[in-house]
Design brief:
- This protein is an alpha/beta fold and 265 residues long.
- It folds into two domains: 149 residues, 3-Layer(aba) Sandwich (Rossmann fold); 106 residues, Dihydrodipicolinate Reductase, domain 2 (2-Layer Sandwich), CATH 3.30.360.
- The protein has nine helices and twelve strands.
- Strands 3-2-1-4-5-6-12 form a seven-stranded parallel β-sheet, with helices on both faces. A five-stranded mixed β-sheet has the order 8-9-7-10-11.
- Strand 8 and strand 9 form a beta hairpin.
- The mean pLDDT is 96.
- The chain binds NADPH dihydro-nicotinamide-adenine-dinucleotide phosphate and the ligand O=C(O)C1=N[C@H](C(=O)O)C[C@H](O)C1.
- NADPH dihydro-nicotinamide-adenine-dinucleotide phosphate binds next to helix 1.
């Protein structure tokens, strides 16, 4: 049995993750933590009263007492870094869904997990369709280097651009390099009108109620455009990838950034 603790268990992704772990063969949900005040078990919160796991607000105590194999984290930027440090300190494999960390922080965790020989995964997007979108977009960029990314999310999202958009831009940049696009003399009449810049690629972030998680990668060539789009219309879309990640992390002895490195290897 793989023993799993979920951090951010009362949040949108945390709740789905607890349900997915409870339903997964060979996995046991041993702990749930969140900073929200809730007096009761995660089972009573999820409408599964038979699951009698109290919600803790002390991650280190949970890791020390329950000795899980894996920590799933869906909290928020600023919290996730501390949780990864504590997991690595106590020999627990982190499977991280929380986005918004700086590239230098991710690099630091990859280094420290390798030194400690602890497996870990930092995954900006667990949806298999999103991983395919990134793969197809990276292939297309070899032929259509002019590209812009539009990501659309619910209006409760803290970080912009999304972790998925950054991962897509990094992957596209790895095949086309840093290049300038558009008119050198273009100017913005409203700051930010042309989006954020990643190595010459524009990223546009839309936040509105009604969306879950969506991204379109648009390529432009002479007399033609190509659009590659992925839509997560429900948070269940992330769960098969998350469960796969929990299984795979058990055989890793280093930290991997991106589930595509496991799925398409
Ligand atoms: N990798 C992927 O496939 C996906 C990643 N994400 C990412 O996951 C993260 C969470 O998203 P989402 O579930 O929508 O967000 P939510 O705000 O719904 O959930 C986050 C939860 O973490 C809690 N929390 C905040 N601080 C702490 C803390 N110090 N200790 C424990 N719990 C804490 C929050 O409590 P409170 O509300 O009281 O602050 C909340 O219950 C985001 O970074 C998002 O970008 C989202 C979807 C898919
Ligand atoms: O906050 C979200 O909701 C999501 N966050 C991740 C990201 O930043 O890419 C993954 C997905 O887009 C949903």
């Amino acid at each position: 049995m793989i023993k799993v603790v979920v951090a951010g268990a009362l949040g949108k992704m945390g709740q789905e993750s607890c349900k997915a772990v409870l339903n997964a063969e060979g996995m046991e949900l041993v702990g749930a933590m969140d900073c929200k005040e809730f007096h009761g078990s995660i089972g009573s919160f999820l409408g599964k009263p038979e699951v009698n796991i109290q919600i803790s607000n002390n991650i280190e105590q949970v890791l020390l007492e329950l000795k899980p194999d894996v920590l799933i984290d869906f909290t928020r930027p600023g919290v996730v870094q501390e949780n990864i440090e504590l997991a690595l300190k106590h020999g627990v494999r982190p499977v991280i869904g929380t986005t918004g960390m700086a590239a230098s922080e991710i690099e630091g965790f990859i280094k420290s997990a390798s030194e400690k020989k602890i497996g870990g995964l930092i995954v900006p997007n667990f949806a298999i369709g999103a991983l395919l979108m990134i793969k197809f977009a990276t292939e297309a960029a070899k032929y259509f280097p002019n590209v812009e990314i539009i990501e659309l999310h619910h209006d409760q999202k803290m970080d912009a651009p999304s972790g998925t958009a950054l991962k897509t831009a990094e992957s596209i940049a790895s095949v086309r390099g840093n290049m300038s696009q558009g008119m050198p003399s273009e100017f913005e009449k409203i700051d930010g009108a042309r989006g954020g810049d990643f190595e010459g690629m524009k990223i546009h972030s839309i936040r509105l109620p009604g969306f879950v998680a969506h991204q379109e990668v648009i390529f432009g060539g002479t007399g033609q455009t190509l659009s590659i789009r992925h839509d997560s219309i429900a948070r269940e879309s992330f769960m098969p990838g998350l469960i796969l990640a929990v299984r795979k992390v058990m055989s890793l002895d280093h930290m991997v950034y991106g589930l595509e490195n496991i799925l398409f290897e």
